[in-house]
Amino acid sequence: MATSAPATTVWTIDPSHSEIQFKVRHLMVSNVTGKFTSFEGQAETNGDSFDGAKLTFSADIDSIQTGAEQRDGHLKSADFFDAANHPKLIFESTSVTKTGDDTYDIVGDLTIRGITKSVTLKAEEGGQMVDFYGNTKAGFEITGTIKRKEFGLSWDAVTEAGGVVVSDDVKLILNVQVGRQ
């Protein structure tokens, strides 16, 4: 008798237990941390295994926060994200491959300012647990680095001493909890 494939399971991000952050070097001496406070995403898996999952994610550019209102406004402007014309950052996976007991490589298309590039992210699964209400949750820390200028975030300034104000490298750190639907 043939065994059937596991049913497709849909998991959605729990925004109250998730953080979408980035870090960028400022003046090449320290990091500035920012986050998106409005985002959504989901994973479609075969059963409860995330190996081979299909991931989708979007963040609202207007929700960007760095702790400085003037800087947030500059990031939303045409110098950087151009939120008026490109209100969302979008990610769609092309492959999710299990690389260890609790680690994955995530490859996908990231779209910022209407420019789409393939990126590779690393994910570490924190495990799965049933909450007080009987809902199955899974947690992941996802990290990677992108080059902001590849996505049209090309604003640059140089100090009088010749130092770079904002690095091209942007570190991504996502701590995400998803719930099985």
Classify the helix fraction into a percent range: under 10%
- Mean pLDDT across every amino acid position: 91
* Class by alpha and beta content: mainly beta
The description of the largest β-sheet is: 8 strands, antiparallel, barrel
Q: Estimate nothing, just give the exact number of structural domains.
A: 1
CATH architect. name? Beta Barrel
Could you name the CATH homologous superfamily? Answer: Lipid/polyisoprenoid-binding, YceI-like
Which residue ranges are poorly predicted, with pLDDT under 50 across at least 5 consecutive positions? none
The first-level CATH class name: Mainly Beta
Overview of the molecule:
- There is one protein chain.
- The protein is mainly beta and 181 residues long.
- The chain has a single domain (8-180), classed as Lipocalin (Beta Barrel), CATH 2.40.128.110.
- It is built from one helix and eleven strands.
- The protein has one helix at residues 69-76, and strands spanning 8-13, 19-26, 30-36, 39-46, 49-60, 64-65, 88-98, 103-112, 115-130, 136-147, 166-180.
- The chain has an eight-stranded antiparallel β-barrel with strand order 1-4-5-7-8-9-10-11.
- β8 (103-112) and β9 form a beta hairpin.
- The chain starts with 7 loop residues before the first strand and ends with a strand.
- The model has no long low-confidence stretch (mean pLDDT 91).
SSE topology sketch:
Blueprint: E1 8-13, E2 19-26, E3 30-36, E4 39-46, E5 49-60, E6 64-65, H1 69-76, E7 88-98, E8 103-112, E9 115-130, E10 136-147, E11 166-180
Antiparallel strand pairs: 1-4, 1-11, 2-3, 2-11, 3-6, 4-5, 5-7, 7-8, 8-9, 9-10, 10-11
